[in-house]
Each structure stands twice: as structure tokens, then as C-alpha cells.
């Protein structure tokens, strides 16, 4: 009976974490105007649906690959190129974040939660700490 309860709690926490992370990523992409800016820079306004589809497909394939622990041996050259592209993406995302550090205040203003912003930040910090402790002490064993 306890294992069923533990599995249900893990399922609920997994879904809640996925919704929180997915919502944060989507809010970040919307606030940063990544897709419209990309189409503006490349003069491909009529291809916006392709960019959105690529973003969704990449997220889905990456999630499935991580969930099912896909492994492949591509060799050092291809692995280096993939690592380079991942590094460029992370660097560009970090640069965009330094420009727009007001994602949470904008989100709280749009959701009419400005008086709860401090509580929202503390809940996110507590959730991150609790998740890290769970990962370190329970999941890794």
C-alpha cells in the first residue's frame, strides 16, 4: 500500500514539476519574443509556424530521449558539433536572460499576483531546495 502511495506522490510531483518548468520556459520564450525576433532577423515572417513546430518537436524529442535514456555513439566530431550548438544555445539564452530579468514581475502583474510576488519567489526557492534535497538523499540511493 505504501509503494502505491509513494508512486502516486512521485507522479503528482513529476507532473507538477513538469508543468512548472514548462510554464516557465514558455513564459520566458513569450516574454523574450524569441520566435518573432528570430523571424525578424532572418526575414522569414511567413515561416513562424515552422519555428514553433521545431521548438515543440525539439522539446518533445528531447524529453522522450531523456525519459527513455537514449544513447548513441556518433563519434567525437559529431559530439563536438552537438556540444558546440548546445553551448551556443545556452549562451544565447543566458544573454537574453541578462537583458530581461523581469520575467517574474511581468508574469505576476499579468496574473494579478503582484502582492504575492515575494511568496511566489520563496515558494520557487523552497521547491528548488526540496527538489535538490530529494534528488541528493532519496533518488540517488
- What's the rounded overall pLDDT mean? 79
The low-pLDDT segments are: none
Helix-and-strand structural type: mainly alpha
Our count of helices gives 6
Shape: globular
State the separation between the terminal residues, measured CA to CA. Answer: 21 Å
Please tell me how large the radius of gyration is: 19 Å
Order of helices and strands, N to C? HHHHHH
| Biggest sheet record | none
Helical amount among residues, as a percent range? Answer: over 70%
The count of strands amounts to 0
What fraction strand? under 5%
Can you offer a commentary on this structure?
Helices cover 82% and strands 0% of the residues. The protein has 141 residues and is mainly alpha-helical. The model has no long low-confidence stretch (mean pLDDT 79).
Amino acid at each position: 500500500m505504501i509503494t502505491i502511495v509513494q508512486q502516486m506522490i512521485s507522479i503528482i510531483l513529476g507532473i507538477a514539476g513538469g508543468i512548472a518548468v514548462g510554464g516557465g520556459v514558455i513564459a520566458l520564450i513569450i516574454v523574450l519574443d524569441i520566435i518573432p525576433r528570430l523571424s525578424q532577423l532572418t526575414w522569414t515572417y511567413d515561416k513562424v509556424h515552422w519555428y514553433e513546430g521545431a521548438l515543440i518537436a525539439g522539446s518533445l524529442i528531447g524529453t522522450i530521449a531523456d525519459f527513455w535514456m537514449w544513447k548513441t555513439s556518433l563519434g567525437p566530431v559529431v559530439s563536438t558539433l552537438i556540444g558546440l550548438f548546445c553551448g551556443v544555445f545556452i549562451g544565447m539564452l543566458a544573454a537574453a536572460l541578462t537583458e530581461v530579468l523581469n520575467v517574474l514581475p511581468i508574469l505576476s502583474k499579468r496574473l494579478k499576483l503582484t502582492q504575492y510576488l515575494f511568496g511566489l519567489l520563496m515558494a520557487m526557492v523552497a521547491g528548488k531546495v526540496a527538489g535538490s534535497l530529494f534528488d541528493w538523499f532519496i533518488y540517488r540511493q
